[in-house]
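[job 4471] stage=fold_predict status=RUNNING
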Amino acid sequence: MLQITAVGNLASDPRTATVGDNEVANFTILCNKKIKGEDVTTAVDCSVWGKRAAVAANYLFKGSQVTVSGEGHVEVYERNNGSSGSKIVLRVSDFALPPKGGQTDTPF
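[job 4471] inference complete, writing structure tokens
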């Protein structure tokens, strides 16, 4: 099992759906880092299930900074031009919004 914690900003508003009896919110966060003086952005696809999905849908918006943690894996896919690519996919178990005015992080 690969446990991942990532901090980034939402690329778009969460998309919600119902799968069976469960609600899911899907979103992508963009994590920025400088490597050898260059800005590198890593996209992390996230899914939040159950009651936390409704919280994510109500409190997270495009551009929001969020800290997420959960079980991750690398997914390999084929692009339209035939080349292959990979992406990080995270099933979120916990997430926290940034502090407001000196408050501590708000975990969900």
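[job 4471] summary: The radius of gyration is 15 Å.
[job 4471] exit 0
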